[in-house]
Amino acid sequence: MRIMNKGLFAIVLVAAACGPIVSQEATSTASSAIIDGTPEAVGVLDLVNDASTDLTVLDIDARLDKRAAVGLLHRRNGPDGIAASSDDELFTSIGEVDDVRWVGPSALGKLKAYAQNHGFVPEGKDLLGTYDGVSFSVDEALATVALANTESETALDDGLALDARAVQSILAARPIATAMQLSTLYFVGASALNKLKNGANVNAPPPSAAMFANDLRDALVNYYAIYGNDIIGSGGNDLQAAQDAVDVNAVSPIADSEDDPEGNDLSTTTVFAHPDPTFPGSDNVWFGAYDKGTGDLLNVYSFN
Questions:
Q1: Is residue 215 part of a domain?
Q2: Domain boundary, last residue among 157, 176, 200
Protein backbone atom coordinates (compact mmCIF):
# COMPACT_ATOMS: atom_id res chain seq x y z
CA MET A 1 0.00 0.00 0.00
CA ARG A 2 7.10 -0.19 -0.21
CA ILE A 3 14.73 1.89 6.09
CA MET A 4 17.61 3.38 5.99
CA ASN A 5 19.13 5.76 8.44
CA LYS A 6 19.93 9.25 7.25
CA GLY A 7 23.41 10.46 7.82
CA LEU A 8 26.34 12.32 6.44
CA PHE A 9 29.00 10.21 4.90
CA ALA A 10 32.45 11.10 3.64
CA ILE A 11 33.04 10.68 -0.07
CA VAL A 12 36.40 9.19 -0.66
CA LEU A 13 37.98 9.32 -4.09
CA VAL A 14 40.82 6.92 -4.57
CA ALA A 15 43.23 7.44 -7.41
CA ALA A 16 43.94 4.24 -9.32
CA ALA A 17 45.31 3.23 -12.64
CA CYS A 18 41.83 2.70 -14.03
CA GLY A 19 40.62 6.11 -12.82
CA PRO A 20 38.77 7.43 -9.78
CA ILE A 21 36.62 5.00 -7.82
CA VAL A 22 33.75 6.17 -5.63
CA SER A 23 33.72 4.46 -2.25
CA GLN A 24 30.75 2.56 -0.76
CA GLU A 25 30.27 5.49 1.65
CA ALA A 26 29.55 7.72 -1.31
CA THR A 27 26.85 5.47 -2.67
CA SER A 28 25.28 5.29 0.77
CA THR A 29 24.40 8.99 0.55
CA ALA A 30 22.40 8.24 -2.58
CA SER A 31 20.24 5.55 -1.03
CA SER A 32 19.72 7.60 2.13
CA ALA A 33 18.46 10.54 0.05
CA ILE A 34 15.36 8.52 -0.91
CA ILE A 35 13.94 6.62 2.05
CA ASP A 36 12.24 3.29 1.39
CA GLY A 37 8.54 3.43 2.10
CA THR A 38 8.11 7.07 1.04
CA PRO A 39 6.02 7.98 -2.03
CA GLU A 40 9.22 8.97 -3.85
CA ALA A 41 10.78 5.56 -3.21
CA VAL A 42 7.63 3.77 -4.35
CA GLY A 43 7.62 5.88 -7.50
CA VAL A 44 11.25 5.16 -8.34
CA LEU A 45 10.76 1.41 -7.79
CA ASP A 46 7.60 1.38 -9.90
CA LEU A 47 9.46 3.23 -12.64
CA VAL A 48 12.47 0.91 -12.84
CA ASN A 49 10.29 -2.21 -12.47
CA ASP A 50 7.77 -1.20 -15.13
CA ALA A 51 8.13 -3.44 -18.18
CA SER A 52 7.61 -0.42 -20.45
CA THR A 53 10.66 1.30 -18.95
CA ASP A 54 13.29 0.57 -21.58
CA LEU A 55 16.65 1.97 -22.61
CA THR A 56 15.06 4.94 -24.35
CA VAL A 57 13.15 5.91 -21.21
CA LEU A 58 16.15 5.63 -18.91
CA ASP A 59 18.92 6.85 -21.22
CA ILE A 60 17.15 9.49 -23.32
CA ASP A 61 14.03 10.57 -21.42
CA ALA A 62 15.32 10.32 -17.85
CA ARG A 63 18.83 11.32 -19.03
CA LEU A 64 20.75 8.68 -17.07
CA ASP A 65 24.29 7.74 -17.97
CA LYS A 66 23.82 4.98 -20.53
CA ARG A 67 25.94 2.61 -18.46
CA ALA A 68 23.59 3.10 -15.50
CA ALA A 69 20.54 2.60 -17.72
CA VAL A 70 21.93 -0.61 -19.19
CA GLY A 71 22.89 -1.88 -15.74
CA LEU A 72 19.40 -1.28 -14.35
CA LEU A 73 17.73 -3.09 -17.24
CA HIS A 74 20.21 -5.98 -17.10
CA ARG A 75 19.55 -6.44 -13.38
CA ARG A 76 15.77 -6.17 -13.75
CA ASN A 77 15.31 -8.33 -16.85
CA GLY A 78 17.39 -11.26 -15.65
CA PRO A 79 19.54 -13.64 -17.69
CA ASP A 80 17.22 -13.75 -20.71
CA GLY A 81 17.30 -9.95 -21.08
CA ILE A 82 13.54 -9.84 -21.65
CA ALA A 83 11.20 -7.70 -19.55
CA ALA A 84 8.14 -9.26 -17.91
CA SER A 85 9.49 -12.81 -18.23
CA SER A 86 9.81 -15.57 -15.65
CA ASP A 87 13.42 -14.79 -14.69
CA ASP A 88 12.93 -11.08 -13.98
CA GLU A 89 14.52 -9.83 -10.76
CA LEU A 90 12.50 -6.78 -9.79
CA PHE A 91 13.91 -4.17 -7.44
CA THR A 92 12.45 -4.20 -3.94
CA SER A 93 14.38 -1.35 -2.31
CA ILE A 94 16.22 1.83 -3.19
CA GLY A 95 19.37 0.18 -1.89
CA GLU A 96 19.11 -2.46 -4.61
CA VAL A 97 18.80 0.27 -7.25
CA ASP A 98 21.77 2.10 -5.75
CA ASP A 99 23.83 -1.11 -5.80
CA VAL A 100 23.72 -1.24 -9.62
CA ARG A 101 27.05 -0.12 -11.03
CA TRP A 102 27.13 3.49 -12.28
CA VAL A 103 24.01 4.34 -10.29
CA GLY A 104 24.67 6.98 -7.66
CA PRO A 105 23.22 10.23 -6.32
CA SER A 106 22.90 11.79 -9.77
CA ALA A 107 21.09 8.82 -11.29
CA LEU A 108 18.76 8.44 -8.32
CA GLY A 109 17.93 12.13 -8.47
CA LYS A 110 17.06 11.85 -12.16
CA LEU A 111 14.96 8.74 -11.57
CA LYS A 112 13.10 10.52 -8.79
CA ALA A 113 12.43 13.57 -10.97
CA TYR A 114 11.23 11.46 -13.89
CA ALA A 115 8.98 9.38 -11.62
CA GLN A 116 7.44 12.53 -10.14
CA ASN A 117 6.83 14.10 -13.54
CA HIS A 118 5.30 11.01 -15.12
CA GLY A 119 2.78 9.83 -12.55
CA PHE A 120 4.76 7.07 -10.87
CA VAL A 121 4.84 8.72 -7.43
CA PRO A 122 1.60 8.02 -5.50
CA GLU A 123 -0.19 10.82 -3.70
CA GLY A 124 -3.31 11.48 -1.65
CA LYS A 125 -5.63 8.48 -1.75
CA ASP A 126 -3.31 6.48 -4.05
CA LEU A 127 -2.07 3.20 -2.61
CA LEU A 128 1.33 3.65 -1.01
CA GLY A 129 1.89 0.07 0.10
CA THR A 130 0.64 -2.94 2.01
CA TYR A 131 2.49 -3.89 5.18
CA ASP A 132 1.67 -7.00 7.21
CA GLY A 133 -1.50 -7.26 5.13
CA VAL A 134 -2.65 -3.72 5.97
CA SER A 135 -3.00 -1.35 3.02
CA PHE A 136 -2.19 2.35 3.30
CA SER A 137 -2.90 5.22 0.98
CA VAL A 138 -0.38 8.06 1.07
CA ASP A 139 -2.70 10.14 3.26
CA GLU A 140 -3.40 7.23 5.61
CA ALA A 141 0.30 6.45 5.99
CA LEU A 142 1.13 10.06 6.83
CA ALA A 143 -1.66 10.27 9.40
CA THR A 144 -0.75 6.92 10.95
CA VAL A 145 2.94 7.77 11.28
CA ALA A 146 2.07 11.17 12.76
CA LEU A 147 -0.14 9.46 15.33
CA ALA A 148 2.55 6.93 16.23
CA ASN A 149 5.09 9.72 16.66
CA THR A 150 2.96 12.05 18.77
CA GLU A 151 0.54 10.05 20.93
CA SER A 152 1.46 9.57 24.59
CA GLU A 153 2.29 6.18 26.04
CA THR A 154 -1.08 6.17 27.81
CA ALA A 155 -2.95 7.01 24.62
CA LEU A 156 -1.21 4.24 22.70
CA ASP A 157 -1.63 1.68 25.50
CA ASP A 158 -5.07 2.49 26.88
CA GLY A 159 -6.71 4.60 24.20
CA LEU A 160 -5.75 2.46 21.20
CA ALA A 161 -5.37 -0.75 23.20
CA LEU A 162 -2.02 -1.66 21.67
CA ASP A 163 0.04 -4.48 23.14
CA ALA A 164 2.31 -2.93 25.77
CA ARG A 165 5.34 -4.36 23.98
CA ALA A 166 4.27 -2.69 20.74
CA VAL A 167 3.91 0.61 22.60
CA GLN A 168 7.46 0.37 23.97
CA SER A 169 8.77 -0.56 20.54
CA ILE A 170 7.12 2.50 18.99
CA LEU A 171 8.37 4.85 21.72
CA ALA A 172 11.93 3.57 21.34
CA ALA A 173 11.88 4.02 17.55
CA ARG A 174 10.63 7.61 17.44
CA PRO A 175 10.82 9.53 15.22
CA ILE A 176 9.40 6.95 12.81
CA ALA A 177 9.80 7.93 9.16
CA THR A 178 7.32 5.76 7.28
CA ALA A 179 4.51 3.26 7.65
CA MET A 180 6.90 0.68 6.27
CA GLN A 181 9.36 1.33 9.11
CA LEU A 182 6.49 1.23 11.60
CA SER A 183 5.50 -2.22 10.33
CA THR A 184 9.02 -3.57 10.93
CA LEU A 185 9.07 -2.73 14.64
CA TYR A 186 8.97 -5.56 17.15
CA PHE A 187 5.42 -6.53 18.19
CA VAL A 188 3.88 -4.16 15.63
CA GLY A 189 1.88 -6.41 13.32
CA ALA A 190 -1.42 -6.33 11.50
CA SER A 191 -3.47 -5.78 14.65
CA ALA A 192 -1.40 -2.80 15.83
CA LEU A 193 -1.23 -1.30 12.35
CA ASN A 194 -5.01 -1.50 11.94
CA LYS A 195 -5.57 0.12 15.34
CA LEU A 196 -3.12 2.93 14.55
CA LYS A 197 -4.58 3.42 11.08
CA ASN A 198 -8.14 3.53 12.41
CA GLY A 199 -7.09 5.79 15.27
CA ALA A 200 -5.59 8.24 12.79
CA ASN A 201 -8.85 8.36 10.87
CA VAL A 202 -11.33 8.80 13.73
CA ASN A 203 -12.69 11.91 12.05
CA ALA A 204 -13.50 10.12 8.81
CA PRO A 205 -17.27 9.85 8.22
CA PRO A 206 -18.50 6.27 8.72
CA PRO A 207 -19.91 4.52 5.64
CA SER A 208 -23.64 5.19 5.29
CA ALA A 209 -26.61 4.36 3.06
CA ALA A 210 -26.65 7.93 1.79
CA MET A 211 -22.96 7.68 0.92
CA PHE A 212 -23.56 4.53 -1.12
CA ALA A 213 -26.59 6.04 -2.88
CA ASN A 214 -24.44 8.95 -4.08
CA ASP A 215 -21.55 6.69 -5.06
CA LEU A 216 -23.90 4.38 -6.97
CA ARG A 217 -25.27 7.32 -8.96
CA ASP A 218 -21.71 8.35 -9.81
CA ALA A 219 -20.73 4.78 -10.77
CA LEU A 220 -23.67 4.57 -13.18
CA VAL A 221 -22.15 7.36 -15.27
CA ASN A 222 -19.15 5.23 -16.23
CA TYR A 223 -21.31 2.12 -16.50
CA TYR A 224 -23.63 3.79 -19.00
CA ALA A 225 -20.70 5.16 -20.98
CA ILE A 226 -19.87 1.52 -21.76
CA TYR A 227 -23.20 -0.31 -21.68
CA GLY A 228 -25.78 2.46 -22.00
CA ASN A 229 -26.81 1.77 -25.59
CA ASP A 230 -27.29 -1.94 -24.87
CA ILE A 231 -29.31 -1.23 -21.74
CA ILE A 232 -31.62 1.26 -23.45
CA GLY A 233 -31.93 -0.94 -26.53
CA SER A 234 -33.05 -3.81 -24.29
CA GLY A 235 -35.76 -1.73 -22.67
CA GLY A 236 -33.85 -0.57 -19.61
CA ASN A 237 -33.67 2.88 -18.08
CA ASP A 238 -31.56 5.63 -19.57
CA LEU A 239 -28.87 7.12 -17.34
CA GLN A 240 -31.02 9.84 -15.82
CA ALA A 241 -33.86 7.43 -15.06
CA ALA A 242 -31.41 4.94 -13.52
CA GLN A 243 -29.90 7.62 -11.30
CA ASP A 244 -33.40 8.75 -10.29
CA ALA A 245 -34.23 5.14 -9.38
CA VAL A 246 -31.45 5.04 -6.79
CA ASP A 247 -33.24 5.40 -3.45
CA VAL A 248 -31.43 5.71 -0.14
CA ASN A 249 -34.38 3.94 1.52
CA ALA A 250 -33.75 0.92 -0.70
CA VAL A 251 -30.15 0.59 0.51
CA SER A 252 -29.54 -2.25 2.97
CA PRO A 253 -26.32 -3.29 4.75
CA ILE A 254 -24.95 -6.79 4.19
CA ALA A 255 -24.74 -8.73 7.46
CA ASP A 256 -23.36 -12.03 6.12
CA SER A 257 -20.29 -12.21 3.89
CA GLU A 258 -21.92 -15.07 2.00
CA ASP A 259 -24.44 -12.54 0.70
CA ASP A 260 -21.60 -10.48 -0.76
CA PRO A 261 -20.48 -11.80 -4.17
CA GLU A 262 -16.95 -10.51 -3.51
CA GLY A 263 -16.81 -12.09 -0.05
CA ASN A 264 -15.37 -9.04 1.73
CA ASP A 265 -14.29 -9.35 5.36
CA LEU A 266 -17.17 -7.63 7.14
CA SER A 267 -15.06 -7.02 10.24
CA THR A 268 -13.06 -4.43 8.28
CA THR A 269 -15.43 -3.66 5.40
CA THR A 270 -18.97 -2.29 5.27
CA VAL A 271 -21.01 -3.51 2.30
CA PHE A 272 -24.32 -2.07 1.14
CA ALA A 273 -26.78 -3.47 -1.42
CA HIS A 274 -29.34 -1.79 -3.69
CA PRO A 275 -31.83 -3.26 -6.21
CA ASP A 276 -30.90 -2.80 -9.86
CA PRO A 277 -31.75 0.73 -11.06
CA THR A 278 -30.97 -0.03 -14.70
CA PHE A 279 -33.68 -2.68 -15.10
CA PRO A 280 -36.05 -2.11 -12.16
CA GLY A 281 -37.55 -5.36 -10.93
CA SER A 282 -34.70 -7.54 -12.25
CA ASP A 283 -32.74 -9.96 -10.08
CA ASN A 284 -29.58 -7.89 -10.46
CA VAL A 285 -28.22 -6.25 -7.28
CA TRP A 286 -25.66 -3.48 -6.90
CA PHE A 287 -23.15 -3.44 -4.05
CA GLY A 288 -20.83 -0.87 -2.52
CA ALA A 289 -17.86 -1.85 -0.31
CA TYR A 290 -16.28 0.63 2.10
CA ASP A 291 -13.28 0.55 4.44
CA LYS A 292 -14.66 0.74 7.97
CA GLY A 293 -11.63 2.54 9.30
CA THR A 294 -11.45 5.34 6.73
CA GLY A 295 -14.89 5.39 5.18
CA ASP A 296 -13.22 5.19 1.76
CA LEU A 297 -15.09 3.58 -1.12
CA LEU A 298 -13.35 0.38 -2.20
CA ASN A 299 -15.60 -0.77 -5.04
CA VAL A 300 -19.06 -0.57 -6.61
CA TYR A 301 -20.12 -3.75 -8.38
CA SER A 302 -23.21 -5.60 -9.55
CA PHE A 303 -24.24 -9.25 -9.41
CA ASN A 304 -27.14 -11.23 -10.81
A1: yes
A2: 200
CB-based contact 156:167 (threshold 8 Å): yes
CA 155 to chain centre: 27
111-143 residue pLDDT tens: 999 999 999 999 888 999 999 999 999 989 999
H helices of the chain, where?
Answer: 24-33, 39-49, 55, 66-77, 94-98, 105-117, 138-150, 153-154, 164-173, 179-184, 190-200, 209-233, 239-245
Report whether 120 contacts 126 (CB < 8 A): no
pTM above 0.85, yes or no: no
- Domain around 104: 13-117
Closest CA relative to residue 81, chosen from 51, 105, 46, 36? 51
CA 60-62-66 angle, 5° bins: 55
CA distance 229 to 92: 45
Nearest alpha carbon to residue 295 among 133, 137, 122: 137
Q: How confident is the model at residue 202 (pLDDT cuts 50, 70, 90)?
A: low
Amino acid identity, position 120 = F
Indicate if 259 and 235 belong to the same structural domain: yes
